[in-house]
Structure formats: C-alpha cells, structure tokens
Amino acid sequence: MSEICVKCNKHKAVIKMQHGAYCEFCFVKYFEKKVYDTLTQYNLINKKEHIGVAVSGGKDSITVLYLIKRFAERHKLEKPIAVAIDEGIKGYREHTLKTLRQFCKNEKIKLKIFTYKMLYGKTLDAIIKEIKKRKLNIHACKICGVLRRQSLNKIAKNIKLNVLVTGHNMDDESQTILINFLKGNFELMQKQGITTKINNKAFVRRVKPLYFLSDKEVKLYTMLKGFNVKYNECPYAEESYRNDVEYFLNMFEAKYRGTKNAIVNTYIQLMQNQKESKINTAHTTFCKKCREPSTRKLCKACELLEKLYIS
Prior knowledge:
Layout: E1 13-17, E2 20-23, H1 24-41, E3 51-55, H2 59-74, E4 81-86, H3 93-107, E5 111-115, H4 116-120, H5 124-134, H6 140-158, E6 163-165, H7 170-183, H8 186-191, E7 205-207, H9 215-225, H10 241-255, H11 259-272, E8 285-286, E9 293-294, H12 300-308
Parallel strand pairs: 3-4, 3-6, 4-5, 6-7
Antiparallel strand pairs: 1-2, 8-9
C-alpha cells in the first residue's frame, strides 16, 4: 500500500479503512480509542467490580485482555483475572494455552484454567467421537458453544466475578445476528449486543469491548503490537453453519465495504426500543439437573449431555 495516512499525512498507510487509509501509529491510536470509548460510552465496567476476561490464547482474547488491563490501570479499577476453558482439542488448544500462559506471565495477570474433562467428565474430542459413534446429528460447534457458555457462567459465579469480558469482534457479532435472523431466533437476538440484557443474579454480565472492531483490524493490531499469537482456527469450525455465514459476509464486505458495521449498528438501533425478553425477569427458571438458569426444565447443555450419556 503506497498511500499516505489520512490522519497524520506523514507516514505510509498500512490499512485501508472505511474513511481512508491509516499508518500503523494512527491505526493503533484509533483501535485503542475505539475500545476505550466503547467501554466508557456503554458503561461496560464499573468501579469495585471483580473483572474476569474469558481468554483462549487467540488474537481476540489476547487483545481484549491486554486492553482491559490497561483500562483498569488507567481508571484505578480492580486488576482483571484471565479465565480460560480447555475444551480438549488435541493439536490446537494446547498451543493457544501455551501462548496465553506466557502472555499472562509477562503481563503479570492471574490466569485460571478449567477443562471440559474437569467440568463434564470428557474432552470435546471424546464427546465428538461419541457423537460420531452414535451417529447423532449434533455439530461440534453446537455442543462446544453450549457447554462453553454454561461453564463460563458457572466459573464466573464460583470465583465471584461481577462482569465477564469476552473478545467477540464485529465479524463474530454480525455473523451471530445474521444466523439468528436466518433461523428465526428472535428471542436469542434480543439477548445479544455489547452487553448481555439479562438482569438476573443467575447470570454473570458479559461485555464485548471489541464489538465495533473487525476481525481484520484485530489481527493487524496484534501484529503491530508484536503479540505472539497464532491465527489458525479451531479444526471443528470448517463444517459449521457459522462458517458458511462468515464466507457469505466476507464476500459482501469485500464488494460492499461497511456491510458488517451496518449490520451491528442496525441491530443496536432495532433493539433499543425492544422490551426485555422473558428471561430478563425475576421469574427465571432453573434446570432441574444442573440448577443453572434455563428457559425450560432441562437446559440445553444437560439435554445434549443426556443424549451422549455423559452427564
């Protein structure tokens, strides 16, 4: 890229943004300001809160952990705790966790790692093997997503966190919005957003400071900051419904720049005037088996585990 940065008019640009090209110095400033503005504008983290950051060792979680630590130091907030889930994906998760351990050691951040084996009795690899053996029509991403969400909520409550920060970026969120729209999951759409819209003590509030930043922007930020992260994806992701939606959105973004940004901003506008969903009330029910919050007698996690006879 031979263009000159539109912000400083001095340095060579490294990325073409929607409103012009930025050099590496201006881009880093833009990126960090975007995260800090999101944190303050939407009041995502408050004083005296116990802050947890859900981390995997990938680019998104490393980035948000780094910036939350800096934000906490700047505003004299409690130092964040990094919380990781080891699903048990051989040849993949052990490498990202190695990166994560080193990063947390360098940044002096407390890290807690929990495993599916510890929480559910089996690794994800073993669960997938069981699914294939029984010829069940359950995709790896579905069961992993359900178990991951439940386990993070359980752990966050157990270690008394008030807020759990996740590394979901604009690509993730635009995909989720479109997936729920295509599947007609309006109730799930209502619970999405920069922060969870569930006012109930059974749920630990989740927030997404990278909500307005694209996957491409996050990747470039980690490169410019020199973070030692891998950019490979989970081996189970290729066959997922989300993977197809991601491919579709990337094609549209390439042809019509700003598509993903338009999706998340339109979603926010649509949801602003929506009434709270049923699960936001004080009458939340609980799973009869694991006692985690659920909209039905048996939660999705226990339902899936029962099918596999491992719960």
